[in-house]
Amino acid sequence: MLHMFSDVRSFRRDPLGFLLQKGNAAPLGLERLHLGPSPVMLVTDPDLIRPILKAPEHLIGKGRLIKKLTPVFGRSSLMLHGDEHKRRRAVLHKHMARGNVERYLPQMCAEIRAVGARIATAGTFDPQKYTAALALRTICIAVFGTQVISGGDEQALVRAVGLIEDDLADDMFRALPIGPVGWLRRRRRRTFAKLAMSTVVQRLRECAMKTSALRDLEELGLSDQDLRDEILTLLLAGHHTTGTTAAWVLYHMAARPDLAEAIAEEARRCSDPNGELRIEEVKRADISLNLVREVCRLYPGAWWFSREVLAPTQIGGRDLARGTSLLICPWQMQRDPRFWERPDEFDVNRRYFGDAYIPFGAGPRACAGMGVAMLELQLLALEMAAAYRFVGVAPNPAPWPKASVTLIPPPMAIRIEVRQGIAKEKTAA
User: Fold this and answer.
1) Between these two residues, 151 and 336, which has the higher pLDDT value?
2) Which of 34, 74, 171, 262 could lock 6 by a disulfide, CB 3.0 to 4.6 Å apart?
3) Are 34 and 8 in contact (CB under 8 A)?
4) Distances (CA, A) of 212 to 165, 373, 423
5) What is the pTM of this model?
6) 220: burial class by Cβ within 10 Å (0-12, 13-18, 19+)?
7) Rounded CA gap, 11 and 173, in Å?
8) For the chain, which domains are there?
9) C-alpha distance from residue 226 to each of 1, 61, 126, 168 (Å)
10) Which residues contact 296 (CB under 8 A, 6 or more apart)?
């Protein structure tokens, strides 16, 4: 017999498998999950997503599941709603829109090449160990300007995120409180992580360009604490989701040498005589773009997000009470066989990405950093394929990712070698 906690054990043991099984087997609409005393409904119909996300905020808004992130993200735009959210989002959208970010293409490519050189020295590498810091540096270039964060700050921030992310993921759907010993350990980890993060944020504020998003946020009259929360959210959300997705981009190029070769040829077509990528050609580089789209389908950085019913309303023909959580899971919806042929198969030739494709959310609250992320991932594929040949990857096929705040890739070992033409150029130089 089902009871209010009957799904908790299955969810905590394997959240990805649980949501995939529940969602794919459920009728289109809303499927009740028994994860505690408060009702949680899994949204299984893509036609309901936009109505939910566009609903008036007095009916459906950010609820208790998202608010569990408050100890880390504070009063940032990720947590806010209403006019204050719109004010801050306008600033972020201005600086992270693809048209604005494209002017930093040379600097972004230079950072990717620098990481590629370090990887080539190792010969065999685990992509996750490199892509998180690369994504962090890229988001800093796009939003705050060049040369605003040091290598030491990068590593401090990446370590701080790793220290607390599993705790945050565990808190999301925890029905019962943890014991005093566990609570004390978590408090110590969060205190240490927040101190490291605050130090990085302060240094970034001192170095940011006058034309950066920071200056525009300051003009909104935000308090020092609100500015800190906003910057930290940009750094954490921007680098962590893209960094984990970037690891899968490299994995699939390594697992498909023919794909890597096709992207290498595409990179040559996109480059000027000096080997620099040209943005107008990158916009037409379909192979690398389709690789990024398909990776985002299989491994969405934000693998779930939620809303909460704030006043009695009706969704999908069902009456919902105040306090009902609506769980939207891109991981499940983007692997549902009702919307995708061979949903678990990597297929770079897919050409249809409809309403069931939501790796960056949808509607007015879609991820403001989508343009930055897509461009960065595409540049990563082009630059790495142009300079290096992928000669092996293990394990292949790779296991499923770990469900934390984002989808954490499993340990991988990718082997690369410098392309012969590149090696000759370096020798001549």
Assistant:
1) 336
2) 34
3) yes
4) 28, 18, 38
5) 0.89
6) middle
7) 9
8) 8-428 (1.10.630.10)
9) 47, 21, 36, 21
10) 245, 359, 360, 377
